[in-house]
Write a structure and sequence with these properties.
The chain is α+β, with helices and mostly antiparallel strands and about 550 residues long. About 30% of the residues lie in helices and about 10% in strands.
Length: about 550
């Protein structure tokens, strides 16, 4: 239990300031010692990582570790970089947007720092804050990303360049699904299931319109961003403890689909995350993104996104984020419209002619040299990037709500009884949090740390398969942490719960039932048990999941 007087004071002050608290706010008598009233699992992020607020800006709060380690100013500077749009100016604050980009700001994808919101049926519009879904364009034969688009395709460009995909031509439809139980529980209660279908015609692809012949078929899916809060705490879990979890699950053998053999088999890692471009190629345990494509947080999704979402360069990323095959650069350099506007563009980008290749040769050669340059001028300073990562690593997670509600307590018991807590492992204890960076930019001393904290994220940090209709690319998906997700509607203003990897689940109940859609789902056993519960118990499980 937490015995820190400072946090005790914060909790009492928060309770007083919310004198008209709603029913979902935890309230205690300020005469009662905190440690005697609140259960251990109330402190989702432990002593150093929990915020006691449950307001609409709850995901934006600095963890107590930020103040204790004297990092508040840096945190706030990083917060501004996350929230405010980047622009096309070549100097000053947040300059350097483009030449092609995905969004102008991070908060576009993470409304109020949370999970992305559900895309309405119709066009794929990324100009509004909330659409955290990214396009996943892949080869249906191999499930691998296509090489002729960036892995995170860009729908915007700075003139004279043109967007790699025309978002106005991309359409999203929501289709109904019916499971083998006809979307009904044995007692007659019903539910609905929906999933998105994306259509991106070939004339929405810039290089195709410029004469490029696609090498094969392609398909498109959606993947939503997740909340960025609490990621520093997950980074503080030791590699040994994560390996022990994999070994336990392999030994237990409960999963219908086993463990992803591409990453782990026979008690050992088959693939680890490494960075040989900026770093020395050292291998690290995979722990972030649905696909477990990233290792330590300092070189994970956020460190990558502040560069590739906006295409703003920095000292360790002095090149543009474009497709792996170089297709966009080749066809842009040949585009008459791009050629006609490049002189004006490059005069603004390189007014002192510091890059001779931008000015010498044919216009086609100059454009190609600019787009493929590996020694671009840094547009984000090292201090700015450091502040951004202090903020990213230092976000708190909200304390659990309604801990004195008998339904929440009952739901917690049932969550364990039917086996949900196997994949959604309730708690971990962080290690010494010796920060590592595969890109060798940070030495760790400048970032907040969370040593030896008992945290409650409700994830095993492992991938599993749910085998849903139009499932995630590749089928494997890391168990998403549940902490704070019940506050999604309150924080974002969304009309729906927007759960699962593509926001398909409009309610928590829908999310649960998608886990049992297929007999091949790794969660099918638990859903079979869940279906047999009386309605009051099913509702209690939902209430618990929404409270944590």
């Amino acid at each position: 239990m937490m015995k820190n007087d400072f946090l005790k004071y914060l909790f009492i002050a928060a309770a007083c300031s919310l004198g008209a608290c709603s029913d979902d706010d935890a309230i205690i008598d300020d005469e009662t010692p905190v440690e005697e009233t609140l259960p251990e699992w109330f402190y989702a992020g432990g002593e150093l990582g929990t915020t006691l607020l449950s307001t609409t800006n709850v995901f934006e709060q600095p963890a107590p570790a930020i103040d204790r380690q004297g990092l508040y100013r840096s945190f706030k500077n990083g917060e501004a970089l996350f929230e405010k749009p980047f622009m096309t100016n070549t100097n000053g604050v947040r300059g350097g947007l483009g030449p092609v980009y995905i969004r102008t700001s991070c908060v576009h994808c993470h409304p109020n720092y949370g999970h992305g919101t559900r895309i309405p049926e119709g066009s794929f519009n990324t100009n509004e804050i909330g659409n955290g879904c990214l396009l996943v364009v892949y080869d249906p034969a191999t499930e691998g990303y296509v090489s002729w688009l960036a892995g995170m395709p860009q729908g915007h460009a700075v003139a004279p360049f043109k967007a790699p995909v025309d978002e106005s031509k991309i359409k999203v439809r929501w289709l109904n699904a019916v499971d083998e139980w006809n979307n009904a529980f044995p007692d007659g209660e019903t539910y609905e299931l929906q999933y998105p279908e994306v259509n991106m015609p070939s004339d929405a692809i810039y290089v195709v319109n410029q004469g490029y012949t696609l090498p094969g078929d392609y398909a498109v899916k959606l993947e939503s961003t997740i909340g960025v809060y609490g990621t520093g705490l997950l980074d503080a879990i030791t590699e040994d403890d994560i390996l022990a979890q994999y070994r336990k699950e392999e030994t237990d053998g409960y999963m219908t689909n086993g463990l992803n053999p591409a990453f782990y088999a026979g008690g050992a890692w088959k693939s680890m995350y490494a960075n040989s471009l900026q770093g020395d190629g050292t291998g690290y345990v995979r722990r972030f993104t649905y696909a477990l494509s990233r290792g330590p947080l300092q070189d994970a999704a956020g460190a990558n996104a502040i560069w590739n979402i906006t295409n703003v360069t920095r000292s360790d990323r002095r090149y543009h984020y474009l497709d792996a095959a170089g297709t966009y650069a080749l066809y842009s350099s040949k585009d008459p419209d791009v050629q006609a506007g490049f002189e004006s563009y490059v005069s603004r980008i390189d007014p002192d002619h510091a890059h001779p290749s931008y000015w010498e040769g044919t216009m086609e050669e100059r454009i190609y040299a600019y787009l493929t340059d590996k020694d671009l001028d840094p547009e984000m300073t090292d201090d700015e990037y450091t502040d951004l990562m202090v903020w990213h690593r230092g976000l708190a997670v909200p304390a659990v709500r309604d801990i004195d509600d008998p339904d929440v307590v009952r739901g917690r018991e049932l969550f364990a009884e039917i086996g949900c807590d196997y994949c959604h492992r309730p708690s971990w204890t962080t290690g010494p949090d010796n920060i590592v960076d595969p890109a060798k930019f940070f030495d760790g001393t400048e970032l907040p740390r969370f040593p030896y904290q008992k945290i409650w994220p409700y994830t095993d940090m492992v991938q599993h398969k749910l085998c849903m209709a139009n499932d995630i690319r590749g089928g494997w998906c890391r168990t998403t942490p549940l902490w704070g997700r019940g506050l999604h509607r309150k924080v974002t203003g969304s009309a729906t719960a927007d759960r699962l990897h593509d926001c398909r689940a409009r309610t928590t109940m829908e999310a649960i039932m998608w886990h049992g859609y297929s007999p091949q789902s790794d969660a099918r056993y638990s859903i079979d048990l869940f279906r047999q519960l009386p309605k009051s118990d099913r509702d209690a499980v939902v209430k618990f999941v929404d409270a944590i």
